[in-house]
Amino acid sequence: MSLLVVGSIAFDSIETPKGSVEDALGGSATFFAYAASFFTKPRLVGVVGDDFPAEHRQLLSARDIDTTGLVTQTGKTFRWKGRYHQDMNTRDTIAVHLNVLNTFDPVLPESFRDSSHVFLANSSPVLQKKVLEQIHRPQLVMADTMDLWIETQHDELMSLLPELDGLLLNDSEARLLSEDDNLVRAGQAIRQMGPKFVIIKKGEHGAVLFSEDGVFAIPAYPTANVTDPTGAGDSFAGGLMGYLDSDQTPPPGRLRRAMVYGSVLASLTVEGFGLDRLTWTKRSEIEERVDQYRTMLAF
Ligand code: AMP
User: Fold this and answer.
1) How many whole angstroms from 78 Cα to the centroid of ligand 1?
2) Which residues lie closer than 8 Å to 31 by C-beta, 6 or more apart?
3) Residue 251 has pLDDT above 90, yes or no
4) 33-59: per-residue pLDDT in tens?
5) Would the CB of 173 count as within 6 Å of ligand 1?
6) Measured CA distances, 252 to 62, 165, 214 (Å)
7) pTM reported for the whole predicted model
8) Is the pLDDT assigned to residue 248 strictly greater than 90?
9) 195 in ligand 1 pocket by Cβ < 6 Å?
10) For ligand 1, atom 9, which residue shows the shortest CA distance?
């Protein structure tokens, strides 16, 4: 099995009520690949500038992330700056500098084109489709999207959806795409647009899966130590797909278990700034949280 991710690699500057960091390693593909690396050897495709330090590459290779598809271009790495409100459920984007991401046109290394599992992290649906066209016969493709694409590239997004197994989006994006405020109806309506399953993320309130087996909802893993929610969604996706890539038992239980692993990875990420908490996470700690989920949800 093999898991491919295509997405952003960033320098993130973040302010939360717990403190701040400048130019920390982030980006959707980074969080995804790091979270998935607890289960499999992820293949990463992205672009960085010539300011990207060797120590960041080292951090990725130390987790056995395959960086053959990491392209270095002349210029600066993508930069993002965000500030969280007191409750940390909402954030303001203070600055986005696309830099080398602006002209990024991903060409997959030949060795990545046989990937069985593919995650198209948040980017334009046109670019997501171009990536998909380069992969021979993927077993499972999941994509993330956001309000910007729902509003500005609606037709392109609609033509991508039937090619996906799964679509991941947050609650406000699901309402926007379905034009329905009720999340159950929204999830069902988005499934009708093409993807076999839809996962709606609800931040600290958990996530809901809509599939042919019905609706499955889980709360977020209850952590008392939320430091920085950046990357929670991408870590959720990384945990979920990393687990799917490593567990080949038949559905429906597999996707449900993957939701739990995704939530555990997200809960760990939010306990530190950027990737910090994941850098000292142990696989045994992940399994402990999965066990706690089992106990917590039994009644
Ligand atoms: P999340 O908190 O899961 O929404 O992910 C936050 C990550 O997404 C940060 O590490 C950012 O660097 C990255 N990010 C923010 N805006 C964009 C964008 N327009 N394109 C790609 N990645 C982005």
Assistant:
1) 10
2) 231, 234, 235, 238, 269, 275
3) no
4) 999 999 999 999 999 999 999 999 999
5) no
6) 33, 14, 10
7) 0.97
8) no
9) no
10) 27
